[in-house]
Specification:
The complex is a heterotrimer of chains A (about 150), B (about 775) and C (about 350). Chain A has about 150 residues and is α+β, with helices and mostly antiparallel strands. Helices cover about 30% and strands about 15% of the residues of chain A. Chain C has three domains: about 55 residues, 2-Layer Sandwich (Uridine Diphospho-n-acetylenolpyruvylglucosamine Reductase, domain 2), CATH 3.30.43.10; about 150 residues, Uridine Diphospho-n-acetylenolpyruvylglucosamine Reductase, domain 3 (2-Layer Sandwich); about 110 residues, CO dehydrogenase flavoprotein, C-terminal domain (Enolase-like, domain 1, 2-Layer Sandwich). Classes of the chains: A alpha+beta (about 150), B alpha+beta (about 775), C alpha+beta (about 350).
Chain lengths: ~150, ~775, ~350
């Protein structure tokens, strides 16, 4: 199968029971995609499939055939996007384990327009964070939204 | 004035984390690496009769299998209670304990093989009830417990004349609290990679809060000289106490590496993380307080029964803390405590954020609220009457230094509009207060022989002018590397970007007792400051040589060494470095911190002593859904005294995160058991709060500088947690007039209480103080 | 967390999917979004040597909210975001919006949520856990762990969409090896209500689409859950009604999360057709709802609370919907009726009853 990860084309045949999260981590060394819960509740494995957030731990690798995947490594290669910068500067990450999934969820959210505070809360409600209490994450996304739609 | 210290400096490792480049233990790969999996016991308490590895060994990809009998040496985080083995030996003590471990070519292969391990057991009586475990039992879980019970630790303390105070008291209030266990639920599951090198040296990369304790435990378990072991801490995805102990799977990975000759990685599944637990102890406590007519506290009488689960972990400390941490932040002339921690056949409990303090604090703050009502005084006023004085000594001989509890409470009260809200809002809406204090590191290290400093920091400065900082303190997400960077940069007058903290590696980092007991900022911070000051002395001398001014006249600021002497001169930092390096090479310096001798000399006197304490006073506003019982926390005003914050951004993060964790415990988080079975070992079922569940938090950092803290700082990692639970519970009382002394306040239980109250004569607001 | 290994089949037409199913009798499962099946398989909940993915089947992708036709493969995020659907079938949009968490809804589908496996705290556990606990009546065992000696399985039907679709009077189109059929959605859920057999569907049959015949109903969905996100319902209720000249001419209540199947309370609501709905009747109906709700202790919250909450959810929806219906000027059946609680883009989000915490 062919598919595109962070702008690069790949051609390979993953086993049927290979999860996307494992293919990315073990196959491609894209370890920014995290495994946190194994049941879809924590969102640490969130990647963008065709621009929409999906759980890589609930996605069979074969089912992204022909699709475009963005992982945290592909959000803004070589420099911090203003969303990433905002998350760091606002204290919106501590241990950082939720950050990749949180950022990808926020990327998709900000592409849809400028969200309200409640829409931010709602959008990240499937991304668990155990460190920050979410306050500074929400603030960071709000700040990034001020700066424009393409984080 | 400081420039870098006190500023809102973002995490130095933030960019790596935000780009997915930060490497956690599960992200590491070594050439030839195998994957380990652990076969776990389905029995809670049973003798192992036989283990059949035949089918497991036949699975494709298996490189090696071990059982507990190969590695029977005991370990435990406290040297006085070593009662764990890497895999069960002879008997199992909880459902989920490791029986055997497999190394194989893939994670899946290892798990498949682990499933094929067959065990024959002889079942033993299961103990799930701490009351039962406290008395004589047919089959003690561990040998050597007193009188054939499952009692692991009993503490009895008495200070002042408790009986007399209760006899003379104008008011006596008592609370019986019941608290289920909760767990850390750090987002990163534990992971370890161990590699036994060709030269016989062991390297372990692990998600640990205390590399130094892991280092020691590995040396003991494998009977190796400690210098043959290297422990590396990669980026750690949160700990909260759950990665503080040396853990069985860390030993297992090392053992499998030794057996197979390959590096072996073990990543725990989320279920395994729940079974490993080491979370907050399920606890029942009975607390009585005596007060005089004006509400001055005269005595505390406290009894706690603590369910320790299958092993000791930090439990002896927990048992002490449940008692001794009840006293502050108040001045109490008499105090009596009996604490018992018992083994049960449940996953082990251990240290969790605000260790040993949360459940006692809840009962205490609820009792104070009841006392205020009984006396007819505003509960904030009652607390103000009772706060410990700064620079005083408690009845159990804790040394109190800086203490801004009063400012915390006044700030929270003013910002929250307390006076216009308390007892004045309509039924279903309420406001409540809760206070607390917490240690800035334990005065007494776990390993007290030989007596090392609690923290040492080394600096290296070479021709490039960059300062490399070696520290054994573990940044687990709280930002200790950033705090250390700030301190060193401040002393040397540099931008933070010129200072680089080397990740913890026991080959290069000096011994530090790691990230627990809220010790890092205070102890590592002081050590770092001393190391930087020592370096500065060298640079001043060099600047003096260059400029002809006296070395003592130089200050380091903005990348130069500046002297006002002789019309003033500025020596660029790098010039001073190069001068100092002449004929000696790279510069090194060292600083360490050792806490002063404090505390009494009675048995257990050191428990709870600390060079400084944080103080907190929180006010929470809630609304209670009278139809469905749901508690909505609207806002929390968090008055907090961490001395002078080194980094307010990070302190706020600690407060907001603590409130998240505390509210979780109050409102719904719970290790649910049926007997000894954990019922909710997944993040879906456990119940940590999501972004839509969180209230607004206003952080009020009002502390004054502590005389011994680094730049006046005290802890901020744990003290922010305990006050939020009683503040909300007291607000719920203000809203609906019902006292909750059993956690969690889940909506179904609140609803039941509301209905019961309606049946018994109606829901109504509690009376105002003084009837006004 | 490993699954028994499986083959993945990716048919591109309905016929091909049905043929594949025919080739592997008893050894396959259809796979939609996978958000429930995959974590289940990785916990050893059933085995399926052949997974037949329906994602590539275009017939299941129909989406015509104008005419009330929604294909089974439609993502829940599409359902919650589509403005026409939200205006015409508010209950469906609200139900979709309340499933799990936003990114799950980008994968989870209408068909998958409708045909969600039943859940129980003794069943949704790892292989290790269930094995050491002696399994249960639902799977691999002989004894119910919740109701000892119980003859049936009490695992809970926890789909969010079913009550909304049932209240809205949905019909489903089903494709089998020999024929296609259209049936009322309710017939999919057998009256026996056994958690082991939650659906009456032929082994190879595929849910193709749902049809919503009534686009002018006032409707709503409300859910009780333990926290804001991402939990399954502990109780859920949906109400749909329509009034002409202040008299009900359509009235349905459906429930989920409190038993082994979703329930439609036509027996309760039918007597009210042709009448207005005064406050006294709303009280009476919401009280009587309890008679249909007998949860057992196999979720996180207390059973009596879940029963009470169901009643409460029905009451609050009835009040809102009836007030809106009687005030709507025309009373004419011209679609779409303006319903309260229809999620508009920015402002009024559908109310979510959350168990604890804020908002």
């Amino acid at each position: 199968m062919r598919f595109r990860v962070n702008g690069l084309d790949y051609d390979l045949n993953p086993e049927a029971d290979r999860l996307l999260v494992d293919l990315l981590r073990e196959g491609f060394g894209l370890t920014g995609t995290k495994r946190g819960c194994e049941d879809g509740s924590c969102g640490a494995c969130t990647v963008l499939v065709e621009g929409e957030p999906r759980h890589a731990c609930l996605t069979l690798a074969r089912r992204v055939s022909g699709k475009e995947i963005t992982t945290i490594e592909g959000v803004s290669p070589g420099r911090l996007s203003h969303l990433q910068r905002s998350l760091v500067d606002s204290g919106g990450l501590q241990c950082g384990f939720c950050a990749p999934g949180m950022i990808l969820t926020a990327v998709a959210l900000l592409r849809r327009g400028k969200p309200t505070r409640d829409e931010i809360r709602e959008a990240i409600s499937g991304n668990f964070c155990r460190c920050t209490g979410y306050a500074k994450i929400i603030e960071a996304i709000e700040r990034a939204a001020e700066e424009g739609p393409t984080p | 004035m400081t420039k870098v210290v006190g500023a809102r400096v973002p995490l130095v490792d933030g960019p790596a984390k935000a780009t997915g480049k930060a490497l956690y233990a599960a992200d590491l790969v070594r050439p030839g690496m195998l994957h380990g999996a652990i076969a776990r016991s389905g029995e809670s308490h049973a003798r192992i009769l036989s283990i059949d590895l035949w089918d497991a060994m036949k699975e494709p990809g298996v490189a090696g299998i071990i059982t507990g009998s190969l590695y029977p040496r005991r370990f435990g985080v406290l040297p006085i209670t070593r009662d764990e083995t890497m895999l069960a030996v002879d008997k199992v003590r909880y459902r989920g304990e490791g029986i055997a471990a497999v190394a194989a070519t893939s994670r899946v292969a290892a798990e498949r093989a682990a499933r094929r391990v067959k065990v024959e057991y002889e079942r033993l009586p299961e103990y799930a009830d701490p009351e039962e475990s406290a008395g004589p039992v047919a089959e003690p879980i561990h040998a050597g417990t007193e009188g054939s019970t499952n009692l692991q630790k009993e503490v009895r303390q008495e200070f002042g004349n408790v009986e007399e105070e209760f006899r003379r008291a104008a008011h006596i209030v008592s609370v019986r609290g019941k608290f289920p266990g909760v767990t850390h639920a750090a987002l990163e599951p534990h992971a370890t990679l161990a590699e036994w090198g060709a030269n016989g040296r062991l390297t372990v990369w692990s998600s640990t809060q205390v590399p130094h304790y892991l280092h020691r435990a590995l040396a003991e378990v494998f009977d190796l000289p400690a210098h043959q072991i290297r422990v590396v801490k990669p980026t750690v995805g949160g700990g909260f106490g759950g990665k503080g102990d040396p853990m069985p799977h860390e030993m297992v990975a090392a053992a499998l590496s030794r057996e197979t000759g390959h590096p072996v990685q073990i990543v725990l599944s989320r279920e395994e993380v729940f079974l490993l637990n080491h979370g907050r102890h399920p606890t029942r406590n009975t607390l009585r307080i005596a007060a005089d007519a004006e509400g001055h506290l005269r005595a505390i009488d406290l009894d706690a029964l603590i369910d320790g689960g299958a092993a000791s972990s930090f439990g002896t400390v927990t048992t002490y803390y449940n008692g001794v941490l009840s006293v502050g932040p108040y001045d109490v002339p008499a105090f009596r405590y009996r604490g018992r921690r018992v083994y049960t056949n449940r996953p082990t409990s251990g240290a969790m954020r605000a260790h040993g303090s949360v459940n006692t604090r809840y009962s205490m703050e609820v009792a104070l609220d009841m006392l205020a009502e009984e006396i007819g005084v505003d509960p904030t006023e009652l607390r103000l009457r009772n706060f410990q004085a700064p620079f005083s000594t408690t009845v159990n001989q804790f040394r109190i230094t800086s203490n801004s509890a009063v400012r915390c409470l006044e700030a929270a009260r003013d910002r929250s509009g307390w006076r216009s809200k308390f007892r004045k809002m309509p039924l279903g809406r309420g406001i409540g207060v809760g206070c607390g204090f917490f240690i800035s590191g334990s005065n007494s290290p776990i390993h007290f022989t030989p007596r090392f400093p609690q923290s040492t920091v080394h600096l290296k400065l070479d021709m490039d002018g960059g300062v490399t900082v070696h520290s054994g303190a573990s940044d687990i997400g709280q930002g200790s590397d950033t705090v250390l960077t700030q301190i060193v940069a401040e002393v040397l007058g540099l931008e933070p970007g010129q200072v680089h903290v080397a990740a913890t590696d026991t080959d290069t980092a000096p011994v530090d007792l790691g990230s627990y007991s809220s010790r890092v900022t205070f102890m590592m911070g002081n050590a770092g400051r001393k190391a930087a000051e020592a370096m500065l002395e060298t640079l001043r001398t060099a600047a003096g040589e260059i400029s002809g001014r006296s070395p003592d006249s130089f200050r380091a600021v903005d990348g130069v060494l500046a002297s006002d002497e002789g019309g003033g001169v500025k020596v660029p930092f790098l010039d001073a470095v190069h001068r100092a390096m002449e004929h000696r090479g790279a510069l090194q310096s060292s600083g360490s911190y050792e806490s002063p001798k404090i505390g009494g000399s009675f048995k257990g006197a050191k428990a709870g002593t600390s060079p400084a304490y944080s103080y907190a006073a929180y006010i929470a506003e809630v609304s209670v859904d009278l139809d469905l019982g749901a508690i909505h926390v609207e806002k929390v005003w968090a008055g907090f005294d961490c001395g002078r914050p080194i980094n307010p951004l990070l302190v706020e993060g600690q407060i907001e995160g603590s409130i998240h964790m505390g509210l979780g415990q109050l409102l719904g988080e719970e290790m649910r058991y049926r007997g000894t079975r954990v019922m909710n070992s997944s993040l879906l079922d456990y119940g940590t709060l999501s972004a839509v569940d969180m209230p607004e938090v206003e952080c009020l950092l009002v502390g004054e500088a502590d005389p011994e803290g680094p730049f006046g700082a005290k802890e901020a990692g744990e003290g922010p947690l305990p006050p939020v639970l009683p503040a909300v519970a007291n607000a719920v009382y203000d809203a609906v007039g019902i006292r909750f002394t059993e956690l969690p306040l889940s909506p179904d239980r609140v609803w039941r209480a509301l209905r019961e109250r309606e049946r018994k004569g109606g829901l109504q607001k509690p009376p105002s103080p003084g009837g006004s | 967390m490993i699954a028994e290994s499986f083959e993945l089949h990716e048919p591109t037409s309905l016929q091909e999917a049905l043929h594949l199913a025919h080739d592997f009798p008893g050894k396959f499962r259809y796979l939609a979004g996978g958000t429930d099946i995959l974590p289940g398989l990785f916990r050893g909940l059933g085995s399926a040597p052949h997974l037949i993915s329906l994602e590539g089947v275009p017939e299941l992708r129909a989406f015509d909210p104008e005419h009330g036709v929604v294909g089974a493969s439609t993502w829940l995020s599409t359902l919650e975001r589509d403005p026409i659907l939200a205006a015409r079938f508010p209950a469906l949009a609200q139900a979709a919006h309340n499933v799990a968490s936003p990114s799950i809804r980008n994968s989870a589908t209408l068909g998958g949520n409708l045909l969600l496996d039943t859940r129980c705290i003794f069943y949704n556990q790892s292989q290790f856990w269930r094995e050491s606990n002696g399994y249960c009546l639902k799977f691999q065992g002989t004894e119910c762990q919740v109701v000892p000696k119980g003859a049936k399985c009490y695992a809970v039907y926890s789909g969010d969409l079913a009550p909304a679709l049932l209240a809205l009077g949905a019909v489903v189109e089903i494709a089998g090896p020999r024929r296609r059929r259209q049936v009322p959605l309710g017939t999919l859920f057998p009256a026996s209500g056994d958690g082991r057999e939650p659906y009456r569907l032929g082994p190879e049959e595929i849910l193709v689409s749902i049809g919503l015949p009534h686009s002018n109903l006032g409707s709503a969905y409300a859910k009780l859950r333990a926290r804001g996100m991402p939990d399954f319902p502990e109780a859920a209720a949906s109400v749909a009604l329509h009034a002409t000249d202040q008299r009900l001419d359509y009235f349905r209540i459906a429930l989920s999360g409190v038993g082994s199947r979703p329930v439609v309370l036509d027996e309760l609501t039918e007597p009210y057709l042709g009448h207005p709905l005064p406050e006294a009747d709303i009280s009476k109906i919401s009280q009587e709802v309890r008679r249909w709700v007998h949860p057992v202790a196999n979720t996180h919250l207390l059973s009596d609370y879940r029963q009470h909450a169901t009643s409460h959810l029905v009451r609050t929806q009835l009040e809102r919907l009836w007030n809106a219906a009687k005030e709507s000027t025309s009373g004419s059946p011209s679609p779409p009726s303006s319903s309260p609680g229809a999620p508009s883009k920015k402002s009024s989000r559908p109310p979510r009853i959350s168990g604890f915490g804020k908002r």
